[in-house]
From TrEMBL:
Residue stretches making up the Reverse transcriptase/retrotransposon-derived protein RNase H-like domain: 17-93
Pfam families found in the cross-reference section: RT_RNaseH_2
Organism: Taxus chinensis (Chinese yew)
Protein name: Reverse transcriptase/retrotransposon-derived protein RNase H-like domain-containing protein
SUPFAM superfamilies: DNA/RNA polymerases
InterPro entries: DNA/RNA_pol_sf (IPR043502), RT_RNaseH_2 (IPR041577), Viral_Replic_Matur_Polypro (IPR051320)
Length: 97
């Protein structure tokens, strides 16, 4: 979702609104509207980390189990790889996550 908009804003060029950018923006708005509320971390409990890496993006989610043993999100992170990072192997990219 973020990649199209990030690429549109990359560098010092005139911002041009295109259909891909508009679709990405609408998708981001929908994702934000349905995203669960983040919980405060409880440092007495274990944390669960989910890491995901693609060719150009890193995504991580930090969760904990609540009293009903349901996982609740503590934090989300996403990162678009820079040009030099795109040369990493998939394993190196995953370790960056």
């Amino acid at each position: 979702l973020i990649l199209n908009i990030s690429q549109m804003m990359k560098g010092k060029k005139t911002f041009g609104w295109c259909s891909e950018g508009k679709e990405s923006f609408e998708g981001i708005k929908r994702a934000i509207a349905k995203t669960p509320v983040l919980a405060c971390p409880d440092f007495r409990k274990d944390f669960i980390i989910y890491c995901y890496a693609t060719d150009n993006t890193l995504v991580d989610v930090l969760t904990q189990e609540d009293s009903n043993e349901h996982e609740i999100p503590i934090a989300f992170m996403s990162y678009i790889l820079k040009d030099h990072e795109l040369k990493y192997t998939m394993m190196e990219t995953f370790f960056c996550s």
